[in-house]
Amino acid sequence: MGSKPWLYPAPTYRPIESFWDTDEDAPGPRCAHTLTAVAATKSHGPRLILFGGATAIEGGSSSAPGIRLDGVTNSVHSYDIDTKKWTRIKPAGDPPSPRAAHAAATVGTMVVFQGGIGPAGHSTDDLYVLDLTNDKYKWHRVLVQGQGPGPRYGHVMDLVSQRYLVTVSGNDVGDAVSRFEPVTSRSQGKNLTAAPRLTFMKQ
User: Please, which domain of life does this record's source organism belong to (predicted)?
Assistant: First the structure.
């Protein structure tokens, strides 16, 4: 007796309202950015953190191979789920360079960003953390010990088992899958400095 195929209803989409106080607060049209969900805290409701991206990404030609980016940025915007309001935030610390096609993942009240491609068309292997704890926004550049995933763009990254940051695939890569260990199981994603292979660089 043959098995029946699994049938899933098609997802439905609808636009949601959004507001902002100034033109700077609105993220504007862009592509190849990240939009990462951060859970509610005691001082703030759930939100979406938008970082980077470009207004256009075009492939190169035979005379000028590679990728060309227009309007690439490193701006950060926060969307409050409850109030439906966009806000441009300017964290303390040294920010990542403008980039697109990077990867991002949430670790507790922090968002981790890896890789991406810059205005000159070169991919990067750096790792940054945007710390949102207590609404005191701050960038940290992370020094990775051991074999990292290497320069790449167009990849994905996620937190697995509340312990490992796993990157998969992407362009300009040698190995398809790499793993960071940014947290211990006991810390539950609260302290990135707890792991021996990741430490914050002093600024």
Answer: Eukaryota
